[in-house]
Structure formats: structure tokens, C-alpha cells
Amino acid sequence: MTKKPFLWGGALAAHQFEGGWNEGGKGPSVVDVMTAGAHGVARQITQDIEAGKFYPNHTAIDFYHHYKDDIKLFAELGLKCLRTSIAWTRIFPKGDELEPNEEGLRFYDNVFDELIAHGIEPVITLSHFEMPLHIARQYGGFRNRKTVEFFERFATACFERYKNKVKYWMTFNEINNQMDTSNPIFFWTNSGVQVKPGENPQEVLYQVAHYELLASAKAVIAGKKINPDFQIGCMVSHVPIYPYSCNPEDMMASEIAMHQRFFFPDVHVRGYYPAYALKEFEREGYKLDITDEDLVYLKKGTVDYIGFSYYMSTVVKADAKNDNRDNIVNGALPNAVENPYIKSSDWGWPIDPEGLRYTLNRLYDRYQLPLFIVENGFGAIDELENGNQVHDKPRIEYLGAHIKAMQTAMDYDGVDVIGYTAWGIIDVVSFTTGEMKKRYGVIYVDRDNAGNGSMKRYKKDSFEWYKQVISTNGASL
Ligand code: BGP
């Protein structure tokens, strides 16, 4: 049983479900130039929006035109909150304008009003992989200190406009997944950055990270001035890294690898750089533009809570050599190995509910701030049967086991969790693969990988199940 009121909800991101990518004055974003991938085929970052090429998020599931009906379904499901993002390019189409786009602001007024009228609280991510393409091209994204200013202006415009509609905010989605510099899509979508030949990606990463952390801190400070009741959090992807064995060398390998997970939240929460990072900057001789004034902002702009995604765990072994660096799960870890004790999804994502309890304990011990599970879900191939049914038992099992682990962390271990939003509550375009085939929703959308389909919505078996979970406050799993 979870404490009340608990924020049971669903999670989405503008570019993965809104569609209307060039409507209402919206400009192109970094993700609007990412092509579809497929099983085993990575998404490509192109430099132009070429006619005739397929960019899956251009239409997505067309929430832009279906929002009223979709919100009705969310209300029937009993959601207490909906986590979604504001597409930066609806508000500042190029990113460097001085004034926001009124039509874009009005769209979110309409969406938030509709949610609130149905008793659903909007929980908002300011930037979920949606930086204006113009900022990436013209300024090099977060390589450039000017981008801190652009983000602060965007955040301030949102805080001002929605100050009476939104209480829970997050600055950047999964800000830490760009620690995996081996995968170009994370750097691009988080920060609008592409590493140039001859550059040390790690040095680029830390400069970009600094400007982004500074932008987040400045946004927190600006938000608190506008409405002191705002709760502004960070958002990190948390994939615990277990040691392969009790060999002290494996244990140490895991501990050191975990710095990758903690670097961003350490700064977001504590307001200063952790010792292990300062040592690395010094050891490697990185030349970073970090001023004393910046450090004051970091200290002042710390977050109120930690939002995080949890999908899986991973494992390292001190003397292993990971030959599969393209693998999205273990890419960043040179010594990753498979976990022999757990199974994986069709996309190779290890399924580990116990890892969620472990994560909640670890984050709470380290930071002692409220935790918000803002993404957790099961990506699978779902089939529409008999015209209107989807039997998605594995999803029910996955969500149920993770919710149970969360409840144990709360009831037995005393961890403070304020909410749980299931990822992709309605089927959306997959971020890492650009497919529709990888579905997470409790609501099915009739649309295929190529963008064909009626766009009709159908309730899956998990819809009734999740409805029960919410209405019993987690007692019925
Ligand atoms: C997270 C992202 C989401 C989402 C989710 C599932 O990394 O924040 O945007 O897509 O992962 O990933 P995928 O869609 O690739 O299965």
C-alpha cells in the first residue's frame, strides 16, 4: 500500500506522441531530424529535413489533434497525474528569439486545462530531447555558454505562463545518459552536440555537462522566484551496475562505474562537483570553462526532488572486455557482462524488479530527498486481436512486480516516494529505435512503423489492471 495522496500516473514526451511537428508555428528540433531505425539498425542523425524521408515523430500518434479524446481515456483510467514535456520549439521555434510563440503557449494552456478539468495534475519536463535544431546548428548546442541563456529564457516563459497550472517540474530528461559518449544519439538529443574528429569526447562531455547543469540551476532559481511553491526536480536515468561477483575487484569496478550514474544528480542535489570528478578533470588535464560565479549558481539552484527512470540493471566484471559497445544497454561500460540470473525483454533490456528496490534505497541513502519514479515500463510487440483486444500479460507482470518492489522500499525500508508514472501510457514512438513496434502503452494505437494505420485507440488488458491498481492505491496488483 502506498501513502496518500500518491501521484499515480503515466509518462510521455512531446516529440514521441504529439505529432504536429511543424504546426502552430513550431520549429524543428534535434529529434525531428532523426530517422527511424529498426531491429539492430541504429537511428541516424541527418542534417536536413528531407521530403520523402520518414521521420517517425513528425506525426507520432497525433496527440496534437487527439488530445481531448486521449485525456478522456486517461481520466477513465484514473490517472492522478500525467508526466509530459513541453516541446521547446513550440515556444521558441528557433530557440534564440526574445519573445515566445503565443500559439505554442496556447496549445499547452489547452492541454493543461483539459487535464486539470479531468482531475489530472500535469507534471512537466522542460526539455525531453527537444532542443531547437537552430541552436544545435548555429551555436553548437550546450557547447556554447549562450545556450544557458536560451534555456533560461524558455524555462522562465513556461514558469510564468503555467505558474498556476503546474506545480511539479523537471529540467532535463535523463540528463546523464550522455555519459555514454560512445552513442552519438544521446549527446545529440540531450545537448545538440556532435563530437568532431580529433576531439576528446570526455572533455567535450564535461564542458557540455557544466553548461547544462548551470542552465538547470538557473532555471530552478528563476522558477522559485516566480512561484515559491514549485517543486523542481532533476531527471536521471538510473541503471544500477552490479558487481559480477564478491571478488573485491568486481566490487570496485561496480563502484567506480556507478560514478557515471551519480555524477549529474550529485551536482543537481548537492550543488557542487563531487571529489571523484574534480580529480578526473585534474588528472586528465581537461580545460573547462567553469567560473566562480557559476559555482555560486550551482549551489543556489539545487533541486527539490529526484525524478528518475528505471527500466533495468546491468553488471560489470573487472577483467571482462565488452565487445558489444553498440548495445544500448551496456554501451558505455567497457567491462559489462550479462547477468545470468535474470531474463531480458525482446530488445535485450534485463528485467529486474528487485533492482528498483535497490535503486530507491541507494538514491534515498545518498540524497535524502523525495524520489519520483517518472518512467518505468515494458517495451514489447503487441498485437491487436479480434479487432479490438490486446492481451499484454507480460506488461502486467512487469509493472506489477516493479510496483511491488517500490512498495517494499516504501513500507519496509522507509524510502520517500511521491509518485510513479508508467512510461508510454499510450503507445508512442520508441526513442532509441524510432519504431512503433516497441510498445509500452496500456492503450494501443493503430499505427505501424511506416506511419500507416487508422490512429484509433484501443484499451489493452493492462488498462483495466492499472485502473484497479490506481483506484485501490496499489493494494490490488
Ligand atoms: C527513456 C526516454 C524515453 C523513452 C524510454 C523508453 O530513455 O526518456 O523517451 O523512450 O526511455 O525507451 P525506448 O522508447 O527506446 O524503448
From TrEMBL:
Record-annotated active site: 375
Entry-linked PROSITE patterns: GLYCOSYL_HYDROL_F1_1, GLYCOSYL_HYDROL_F1_2
GO terms under biological process: carbohydrate catabolic process
Keyword list, A-Z: Glycosidase, Hydrolase
Gene3D superfamilies, per database record: Glycosidases
One Pfam family per UniProt: Glyco_hydro_1
Hydrolase recorded as keyword: yes
Classification via InterPro entries: GH, GH_1_N_CS, Glyco_hydro_1, Glyco_hydro_1_AS
GO MF, one example: beta-glucosidase activity
GO cellular component entries: cytosol
Family classification: Belongs to the glycosyl hydrolase 1 family.
Name of this protein: 6-phospho-beta-glucosidase
Species annotation: Gilliamella bombicola
